[in-house]
Amino acid sequence: MSLQPSKIICVGRNYAEHAKELGNAIPDRPVLFMKPPSSLATLAQGIVWNQALGECHFECEICIQIAQPLSQETDKTKVLDAIGAVTLGLDLTLRDVQNELKSKGQPWERAKAFDGSCVLADWVAIESIADVNALELSFSVNGVERQHGLSTDMIFDIATVLVDINQSFSLQAGDVIMTGTPAGVGALHSQDQLSMKLINSNHEHIWTTFCR
User: Fold this and answer.
1) Domains of the chain, each with CATH number or no CATH
2) What is the 3-state secondary structure (H, E, C) of 114-147?
């Protein structure tokens, strides 16, 4: 899928255990923020950040690519039909910067939308996904699993997220939705070797990247 996104919409605190590990309340509706297309990086480029700004945390997430425009659509079947592909991605977070911004009541973009903060694996066509509501992810650092999550563990399932988003933001073909991260987030270090695994109906897709 070679479509370029006009925007990347991220869902925060969509796994209860992740919200708890960061001391955040469980939301009663999806928490949304955006990354610009300039935040995109490839697996081959690896992960790099300005280490003078403090820790950079990994957040592995199930990601959805929109194939058909959505605006003011409330039918959950129709919003699911608009999905063109699925993959895993890393929502990289400058955690020290984010904590400082949050303490001041300021937006998170400096911590979440910097160049290279959105690392997406190769897209898997939706026709190869047996059930978008039965996805499993695994994320490992240096061979040790650090995150594991199921789409069924989400506070707001994928259809609910898509309905909520397109009430506020019209979605265009190519737009990306990062659906939230499970518990286990942590700091990255130079030379870390990273592995992401997406599992659906016994089919596995595995991607690797590294920290420079």
Assistant:
1) 8-42+54-130+154-183 (3.90.850.10)
2) CCCCEEECCCEEHHHCCCCCCCEEEEEECCEEEE
